[in-house]
From TrEMBL:
Family annotation (Gene3D superfamilies): Ribonuclease Z/Hydroxyacylglutathione hydrolase-like
Protein name, entry field: MBL fold metallo-hydrolase
Entry keywords, A to Z: Hydrolase
UniProt superkingdom: Bacteria
Length: 240
């Protein structure tokens, strides 16, 4: 595991050299908020990182309910019984293994690692605009129907989950990077992901922190270029 320290947040990366899976610990007062839970084997590393930082984890927030973002959830909840687990109301259904779509959603199958037999029941269901301590919840469906991002206005850090990837070059969810195609292959709706990417760009983040790849500083131009490439490839015009 690799642990990097940024402005009031830490990036934890499992398998950084070949299949990077990121979690984040965000300082909020004397406590930490964990964003995403990585893989089943990530539990020990997450707990060790919190011990090294010297603050307790009091919240666990999931950007979405794919298996590489919720893998350690049950074990962490067992170890951190008082930590509140949160994710979007929409992706709570996916966490429970339910893949049915709503009538007003794009009728393409939900892809990626669908959770199986997760025991943890969320303590709080989130909507866009909610606040979690210092973090603002941003609804950004596309990779999954209930995907969210978290924005820390103190540092300008945007925790974007899989709405973007930076591994093998920055890309909007659904756009294949040949040397790391996995987030694209797990994307539910490419068009919806583009719309959400544009929403995130408007936040003008100072940091872009994603599920797979390095943190980018001053990422707005790179995000904008990635969106333009995605729109061009799909023949979209989200400026309209």
């Amino acid at each position: 595991m690799r642990l990097l320290n940024f402005d009031r947040f830490y990036q934890l990366t499992f398998f950084p050299s070949w299949f990077p899976v990121n979690c984040y610990l965000v300082e909020d007062g004397e406590a930490l908020t964990l964003i995403d839970c990585g893989l089943p084997m990530s539990t020990r590393g997450i707990m060790q990182a919190a011990d090294q930082i010297g603050r307790p984890i009091t919240r666990i927030v999931l950007t979405h309910a794919h298996s590489d973002h919720i893998g350690a959830l049950d074990a962490l909840k067992q170890a951190l019984k008082d930590a509140a687990v949160m994710l979007s109301e929409r992706d709570a259904r996916l966490l429970a293994g339910k893949t049915a779509l709503d009538p007003d959603e794009p009728q393409t199958p939900i892809r990626g690692g669908i959770p199986k037999a997760i025991q943890t029941v969320p303590d709080r269901l989130l909507q866009g605009g909610d606040k979690i301590g210092v973090l603002q919840v941003i609804s950004c469906p596309g990779h999954t129907p209930g995907h969210i991002a978290l924005f820390d206005q103190r540092s300008g850090a945007l925790f974007a989950g899989d709405t973007f990837q930076t591994r093998s070059g920055i890309a909007v969810s659904g756009q294949i990077r040949p040397f790391f195609p996995f987030p694209a292959l797990a994307t539910w709706s490419k068009a919806t992901a583009c719309t959400s990417a544009r929403k995130l760009i408007k936040l003008n983040p100072h940091y872009l922190a994603v599920g797979h790849g390095n943190v980018l500083e001053h990422p707005e131009q790179a995000m904008t270029r990635a969106l333009a490439k995605a729109e061009q490839k799909m023949g979209m015009n989200t400026h309209a």
